[in-house]
Predict the 3D structure of the following.
Amino acid sequence: MLLICRPGPAASRVQAILALGASRGIGGILLGTWPPGTTWHLPAPESESEPGAAGPPPSLRPYTLSSDETSALLQIWRDSVAATNPLPASEAAGQREDAADYTLDAPEPAEAPTPKDQPVQLRLFGPPNLIIHGTEITTGLRTLGRALLVFLALHRGGVTSDAIHEALWPDQPSGRALNPTISRVRALLRTHTGLPEAAFITNTNGRYRLDPELIGVDIWAFTDTLAAAPPGDHPDRAAALEAATALYTGTFADGLDYDWAIAPAEDLRLQAAAALAELAILTEPTDPQRAVAVLEHALQVDGYNEQLYQRTMRLQTRLGQPDAARRTYWQLENRLFQLDLQPSPETERLRAELIGTTHKPRDRRPPAA
């Protein structure tokens, strides 16, 4: 499968698809710059490349289609899909909501988030924490109540009772478990906030959601800050990326054992890693040492991304830190060794070029009996 698109605001999800799909034959051709990977600058027909712009290897010849040819090709593809997978009108009108679906998009177009004084703060990067008026609530919130808050946070615009039941009580027939759980959570929040009339969890047109006027959620602030970041090389983009990545303090809902939490955790992790990689690029010209620190943070978030290791090694070497570059290589080697893998030939060539020492790859074979 080949994915061709212009990432735009969905860049983090595209990166997640490519990372998770690499072992399944999913690749991508993306239009525009791509900090997590390699960007090729293709000249227009009968024109020369810009000086210093990286182009494709000489062995590869880019082939282009005109807009009319592309439209015709996509029309053929769409017709073939519609013919082989017709969607009944009843399903097209409204498909069943699944517990694994989620959306963190703000109901309104993203703007730079402003601090709010919500009495309740839900911290979901790392183990889920409930903070009320600055104090962490460590008792009174049962496991299902905590899971309910996490699930509702993943469905910012609201979610049906059927989807909640499927997520939290998948092995039980749909019944009466949801309302008592919501009541217990509300009672806890009312007691600790001193707001006896507040709902905290609202139900509008059959969809339950957290009240954003009373509950702040760190994953919402994270995605809002990224979405509202100025584009391209705007001077304020680095500050926005730094503010967003500072919110990423650990794996989403760490320790919460539900299948529906896996995909958003990976999605958020890749968003954070991509933001850190771009922040390092923006920071390097004025503060290369700070860029190294940002890249090292990115490696903590995305510890198997060889391109991040390569970029870190190059910058460390340029700053006259060959020992640090060597440690970065060893860090990659040790991580891959745990998966019975070795650094790619490209990384090995870079190591030899930058560090210039003979290196024997670790033996992955078990010791002799």
Notes: The chain has a mean pLDDT of 82. Strands lie at 2-5, 27-30, 120-123, 129-132, 135-136, 159-160, 201-204, 207-210, 215-217. The first helix runs from residue 11 to 21. The longest strand covers residues 2-5.
